[in-house]
Specification:
Elements lengths: L2 E5 L2 E4 L4 E8 L7 E7 L6 E6 L6 E3 L7 E6 L4 E6 L8 E8 L13 E2 L3 E6 L1
Parallel strand pairs: 2-11
Antiparallel strand pairs: 1-3, 3-8, 4-5, 4-9, 5-6, 7-8, 9-10, 9-11
Length: 124
């Protein structure tokens, strides 16, 4: 079992920055791959980015490449998402998720554990 808790969401202006974090517990953090997904009202939940267990490999959706950066600190059981140059279309509930499968993952079905989500709202 893995428990995930997100934090750091809030209201920011377009063009601004925000950092959301996710703290994991219940299993050795270095043994799980981590990903971020988001869901806007009336939209499907979509993949944002993912990071390997060691943090050596990352993968991003085209919509956030060059603006978002995923990182992890295994000593603190934490994965972070730094969001820069935010746009109104980035407004969504952001969820962190954990996978025990090998390799980097981008499909929801490959993540067994999910956090409760944190709201990110970008205004103009």
């Amino acid at each position: 079992q893995v428990q995930l808790v997100e934090s750091g969401g809030g209201l920011v202006q377009a063009g601004g920055s925000l950092r959301v974090s996710c703290v994991a517990s219940g299993r050795t953090f270095s043994s799980i791959g981590m990903g971020w997904f988001r869901q806007a009202p009336g939209k499907e939940r979509e993949f944002v980015c993912a990071i390997s267990r060691s943090g050596s490999t990352s993968y991003y959706a085209e919509s956030v490449k060059g603006r978002f950066t995923i990182s992890r600190d295994n000593a603190k059981n934490t994965v972070n998402l730094q969001m820069n140059s935010l746009k109104r279309e980035d407004t969504a509930v952001y969820y962190c998720a954990a996978s025990t499968m090998y390799g980097i993952r981008a499909s929801q079905s490959e993540y067994a554990y999910w956090g409760q989500g944190t709201q990110v709202t970008v205004s103009s």
